[in-house]
Design goal:
The protein has 18 helices and 19 strands. By secondary structure, the protein is of the alpha/beta class. The chain has a twelve-stranded mixed sheet, with helices on both faces. A seven-stranded parallel sheet has the order 4-3-2-5-6-7-9, with helices on one face. β5, α5 and β6 form a beta-alpha-beta unit. α2 crosses α4.
């Protein structure tokens, strides 16, 4: 089945969970070789749909069931009249079990495997059937060299189940990994197909459940939920008698000297996302410009923590950190709001001050670190965070008893109770300044309108990323404020305002 992004399954699993599901399907009466046949047919259908007129297939075959899938696809292509070459990195006669049966079927169809060598030419569409989801350590030779040569070939590549060298649990490249144009994956979606390095390796993703028993699939544990249009949290419709006092008063705290734009972006985002009242506490120097740009935001210049507290005690939700700085002014303001009970969203310099033990995060908050900020909060390197983003998000949620939105490709939302969601939306056009400030304000606005912290973070990250996709055809030059009208339109489309 060829599914659009929003029709893909909502549950994301670890490699071990999918292997367990595979074993339970076999135990329930579906032979393993039959599942392999179904996988091969799904791969062949996807290949012909994407490259119908190539007529030439090169299969890079490794060992185990991944190789078995490759041999069966080779047999299908051979019978369809394609020119087929199988380059084997593991001796075909060393295959066992279902993979050996697949090899025999390919041989019966007229396929003649050849040993792989660095000089062996690649042509047509290349099928990556080298390494599967069980890979744990770095890719070894000769597989690493085969992958490097494949990536340098500029030929179209289809990966079976997962690009070889990509970790199915974390999405990180294990030394080297295939860069596929198309990946066909089976039975259950692996979380590692969506986060960290995965977006650069997976290409288009096609899923096939191999006719698995829905009851067995539903009973399979999962590690995360994939955010999708049909599963997003929803704001309650507004009564026709609604007034601003019922829609939350949000206060943005930030904007040190030279950084006033960040806090104003957050305030504008909260305003456009429907918060009833939006206030901004910033440096007095920024007030005239803020009022000129956005008179609907109640902007107050604050010089001290006492001035801030008078404002903060009137707010239902606080967004703390955009442009806050890490100087004396920022430290005094964050110390003032740390003891307040209102829901809070901490971003940017609020997180840097938290990492430096200059502030204490209120329980029940939302924090929105990018990988560098997450690394400082955990006391590790950015590379360590990116090596296992799910673990980093969970650890942050537990350590700070907060909802964590770990930004980046395949943004993750983690809650202290163990829930995790992944957003597979977004576009590289969003790699620019101010986008995080917009996201923080959006989360705050959804909190102000009644969503719980986890739901607010999930809905906000999807709206934010989807807006970037809508605006992506320009490719470059997206300004953070460009997102605001699109976010507003998306929010109206998925959450009609009136009953």
């Amino acid at each position: 089945m060829h599914l659009s992004r929003d029709d893909l399954p909502l549950f994301l699993h670890s490699a071990a969970q999918v292997r367990d599901l595979d074993a339970r399907l076999i135990a329930a009466g579906t032979p393993g070789f039959e599942l392999m046949r179904r996988a091969a047919h799904a791969t062949w259908r996807a290949l012909r749909r994407r490259w119908p007129d190539v007529g030439c297939l090169t299969v890079l075959a490794g060992r185990g069931n991944n190789a078995g899938d490759g041999y069966l696809v080779a047999a299908l292509a051979q019978r369809a009249g394609w020119r087929v070459r199988v380059l084997a990195l593991s001796a075909p006669d060393a295959l066992t079990g279902d993979a050996a049966l697949a090899r025999d079927e390919a041989l019966a169809a007229g396929v003649r495997p050849q040993p792989w060598s660095e000089c062996a030419p690649l042509e047509g569409v290349v099928l990556d059937a080298l390494l599967g989801t069980g890979l744990a350590g770095a890719v070894r030779e000769p597989y690493a060299q085969a992958i490097r040569l494949l990536n340098a070939s500029a030929l179209p590549v289809l990966a079976v189940d997962i690009p070889s060298g990509l970790c199915a649990d974390t999405g990180r490249v294990l030394g080297v990994a295939v860069r596929a144009d198309l990946t066909v994956t089976f039975i259950g979606l692996k979380l590692g197909l969506f986060t960290a390095d995965a977006p650069d390796q997976v290409g288009e993703l096609v899923f096939d459940d191999l006719q698995a028993d829905p009851a067995l699939v539903a009973a399979t544990p999962r590690v995360a939920d994939r955010l999708s249009l049909g599963s997003l949290p929803r704001l309650a419709p507004r009564l026709r008698t609604a007034h601003k006092g019922q829609l939350g008063h949000l206060l943005v705290v930030g904007g040190d000297l030279g950084l006033g734009g960040a806090s104003l972006l957050s305030a504008e985002s909260a305003l456009r996302a429907g918060a009833g009242l939006v206030s901004l506490a910033t440096r007095p120097d920024h007030v005239p410009a803020a009022l000129a740009r956005r008179p609907e935001v109640m902007c107050t210049g604050v010089r001290s923590a006492n001035q801030l507290l008078a404002l903060a005690r009137q707010a239902d939700v606080l967004v703390v950190g955009p442009g806050l700085g890490q100087g004396a002014w920022g430290r005094s303001l964050i110390s003032a709001v740390s003891g307040l009970s209102a829901p809070q969203v901490w971003d940017a310099d609020a997180l840097n001050l938290l990492a430096a033990d200059q502030a204490e995060l209120p329980v029940g908050s939302v924090i929105t670190p990018h990988p560098g900020e997450a690394a400082r909060l955990l006391g590790v390197s950015t590379a360590e965070v990116q090596a296992d983003r799910p673990r980093a998000a969970r650890e942050l949620a537990q350590r700070f008893q907060a909802v964590v939105l770990l930004k980046g490709a395949g943004s993750l939302v983690a809650a202290p109770d163990g829930r995790m969601a992944l957003c597979d939306r977004g576009h590289p056009v969003m790699a620019g300044a101010g986008l995080g400030d917009v996201l923080a304000g959006l989360i705050g606005a959804l909190l102000a309108q009644g969503l719980d912290p986890y739901g607010a973070a999930c809905l906000a990250v999807w709206l934010h990323a989807r807006a970037g996709e809508v605006l992506a055809p320009g490719g470059r030059g997206l300004a953070a404020s460009d997102l605001l009208p699109t976010i507003r339109q998306l929010l109206e489309e998925i959450a009609p305002c009136l009953k």
